[in-house]
């Protein structure tokens, strides 16, 4: 019963409100009663050109940025490359780090550890840059043993070995 009485009082109060209170009012400036925004673009004009620079100013259009040059390659020779992978994965290399068959690393008999060597497969034209971190290969006529990932990128996985061109990259 109390709810009905309360509900009817709210309805009567809503009906008694003036109609202008429910209408949204137009926003105006505090001064002059003008609308808050201008809908005409007639008042906008083009901006004047920027002033000429004064004093010692560098013209950036004459400066050529330095070009990054690829490291120079010093040919090392041609030979047969093979790869090593799963059987040696996780074992220590001659440099002391663990062998990762998914990294781009290689073994060479004489090059210093950390040397970057570009290995190119001439039959496919593919090349990869490997870092020397191990000693080897210790098999006959091979000149370099690359990781499984490097062999995959060179296209040596199927045969297990292939003729490659070697070049030392110098920074």
TrEMBL record:
CDD domains attached to this UniProt entry: DPBB_RlpA-like
Broad EC category: lyase
EC number: 4.2.2.-
Domain RlpA-like protein double-psi beta-barrel, chain residue ranges per copy: 79-165
Top-level division of the source organism's lineage: Bacteria
Claim: Lyase is one of the keywords in the record: yes
Pfam families named in the record: DPBB_1
Gene Ontology BP terms: cell wall organization; peptidoglycan metabolic process
Annotated signal peptide: 1-21
Molecular function terms, GO-annotated: lytic endotransglycosylase activity
UniProtKB keywords: Cell wall biogenesis/degradation, Lipoprotein, Lyase, Signal
Protein family according to the UniProt entry: Belongs to the RlpA family.
Role this protein plays: Lytic transglycosylase with a strong preference for naked glycan strands that lack stem peptides.
Protein name in UniProt: Endolytic peptidoglycan transglycosylase RlpA
Upper taxonomic lineage: Bacteria, Pseudomonadati, Pseudomonadota, Alphaproteobacteria, Sphingomonadales
């Amino acid at each position: 019963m109390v709810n009905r009485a309360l509900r009817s009082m709210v309805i009567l109060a809503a009906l008694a409100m003036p109609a202008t209170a429910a209408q949204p009012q137009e926003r105006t400036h505090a001064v002059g009663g003008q609308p808050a925004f201008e809908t005409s673009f007639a008042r906008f004009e083009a901006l004047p050109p920027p002033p000429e620079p004064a004093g010692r100013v560098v013209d950036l259009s004459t400066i050529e940025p330095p070009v990054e040059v690829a490291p120079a390659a010093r040919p090392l020779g041609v030979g047969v490359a093979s790869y090593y992978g799963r059987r040696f994965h996780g074992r220590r290399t001659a440099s002391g780090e663990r062998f990762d068959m998914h990294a781009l690393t290689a073994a060479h008999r004489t090059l210093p550890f950390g040397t970057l060597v570009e290995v190119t497969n001439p039959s496919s034209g593919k090349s990869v840059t490997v870092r020397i971190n191990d000693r080897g290969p210790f098999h006959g006529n091979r000149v370099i043993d690359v990781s499984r990932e490097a062999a995959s990128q060179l296209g040596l996985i199927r045969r297990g070995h292939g003729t490659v061109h070697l070049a030392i990259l110098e920074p």
